[in-house]
Specification:
Number of strands: 40
Shape: elongated
Helix content: 10-25%
Number of helices: 9
Largest sheet: 9 strands, parallel
CATH architecture of the largest domain: 3 Solenoid
Oligomer: single chain
CATH class of the largest domain: Mainly Beta
Strand content: 25-35%
CATH topology of the largest domain: UDP N-Acetylglucosamine Acyltransferase, domain 1
CATH superfamily of the largest domain: Hexapeptide repeat proteins
Structural class: alpha/beta
């Protein structure tokens, strides 16, 4: 990956790579789960524990530290004490996030039906370059897995490949792992060699072929990470469309895994939805809009804007070209227009900030109109201060509200004013230098 970050912690669809297989494994309801950590062990363990906490996963995990980075076979050997507690074990690679619960469940059932000692999840690829080939016997049993660099021309032509996901009977797996010898230029102990040893002692090895070959994609580079991102994004968009969301152009729409959208909402091209964003019914999002960790009520429209950590309430309109920052609440039935920025602000029912304004640390009540170019001067160089604008006030264009300051109910502020004192209810406040016309 050419990165200081451990591979399984790279983000995919808004989650670390490792989280996907962990959740799929937990869905199988196993008696125990062990996570073998090696490179960046402490960082990986901390991140996995955060995933467990975030998603309220109740099933306990056992973390096993790989004593030396000796490959997949060495990882199994380091887990031997854990494996002895169980009859059957599923062994998965943390860098294959596209594997689904359905496929893993099918692999487990196939292993049980075959009553063998091990089962391999395989796939048939038109272009199997880079994968180990599955060599089968006349009766369909797996004889061996041949790595591409060691394959004969006949073996290299085989299209069935190894996914790296297995079911084993635990006892023969542990026995075979003990006999592994380092091999290859990295001098690693390969899990595939356990299969050969199990078979050499009379064990039966079967294979289950997945019908969705894309699932077995392992991530070993930024190129493969991008490939996985495209596949995952397509799955997410397909799920949304099946549930009643319209995606105008899936090829130019990006939605992360934890986003939720209700039916009859339309996503226009260029839309990016990230984090724990929640969108209600009958909304229009985009084009060219990015929402992060934002809640959007029913019937809202957000066009060509960036919104992060905010709440947009029912039937409000945002954009185009608005920037809504964290801790902001807009609406219901409010409007934030073009080239306006809001931070830690509340815009009440029916109020409008139509254009070219900065509203920070401000509480705007209902039916307020904020004129173009209005600025809340919320920072004095040392601390932030609050501006309060009460219901039905009218703020003229190019007004500076120097916080802390309060504008009363129904008050009006003349255009071009700099307001440094509270404005009582229902009055007109003008704070600007008188115009002087001089002969030239």
């Amino acid at each position: 990956m050419e990165s200081s970050r451990p591979k399984v912690l790279h983000p995919l669809g808004g989650r670390p790579i490792a989280s996907y297989l962990l959740r799929a494994a937990i869905a199988l309801k196993p008696s125990g789960i062990a996570v073998v950590v090696g490179h960046g062990a402490e960082e990986v363990q901390k991140a996995v524990q955060e995933v467990v906490k975030e998603y309220s996963i109740q099933r306990p995990l056992t973390f096993l530290r790989q004593k030396s980075l000796t490959g997949s076979g060495g990882a199994v050997l380091d887990a031997a004490a854990f494996l002895r507690k169980f009859e059957t074990a599923m062994v998965l690679c943390g860098d294959t996030p596209l594997l689904t619960y359905e496929t893993l469940f099918a692999l487990l059932n196939s292993h049980r039906d075959q009553k063998g000692h091990a089962a391999i999840l395989t796939a048939k690829l038109n272009h199997p370059k880079g994968y180990g080939r599955i060599v089968r016997g006349p009766l369909g049993d797996v004889i061996k897995i041949v790595e591409e660099g060691e394959a004969s021309p006949k073996e290299a032509a085989i299209q069935e490949v190894n996914s790296g996901a297995y079911c084993f009977e635990a006892a023969p797996l542990i026995e075979a792992a003990r006999d592994l010898e380092p091999s290859g230029h990295k001098r690693e102990q390969y899990l595939t060699h356990c299969l050969e040893r199990i078979r050499a002692k009379g064990g039966r090895i079967s294979a289950f072929v997945t019908q969705t070959p894309e699932e077995i994609l392992g991530i070993n580079s930024r190129v493969q990470l991008a490939q996985a991102e495209r596949i995952l994004n397509r799955r997410i968009l397909d799920r949304l469309m099946i549930s009643g969301v319209t995606v105008i152009d899936p090829a130019h729409t990006y939605v992360e895994m934890d986003v939720e959208i209700e039916r009859d909402t339309v996503l226009w091209p260029g839309t990016i939805l990230r984090g724990r964003t929640r969108i209600g019914r009958e909304c229009r999002i985009g084009p060219y809009t990015c929402l992060s960790d934002t809640t959007v009520g029913n019937g809202c429209e957000i066009v060509s804007s960036h919104v992060s950590g905010a709440r947009i309430l029912e039937k409000s309109t945002i954009g185009p070209f608005a920037h809504i920052r964290p801790e902001t609440i807009v609406g219901p039935r409010a409007k934030v227009g073009n080239f306006s920025e809001l931070k830690a602000a509340r815009v009440g029912f029916g109020s409008k900030v139509p254009h070219l304004s900065y509203i920070g640390d401000c509480d705007i009540a209902e039916e307020v109109n904020v004129g173009a170019g209005t600025i809340t001067c919320n920072y004095d160089g040392e601390a932030k201060h609050k501006t309060i604008i009460q219901a039905k006030a009218f703020i003229g264009s190019n007004v500076n509200l120097v916080a802390p300051v309060k504008v009363g109910r129904g008050a009006k502020i003349g255009a071009g004013s700099t307001i440094t004192q509270d404005v009582p209810d229902g009055v007109l406040a003008i704070a600007r230098a008188p115009q002087v016309n001089k002969e030239r």
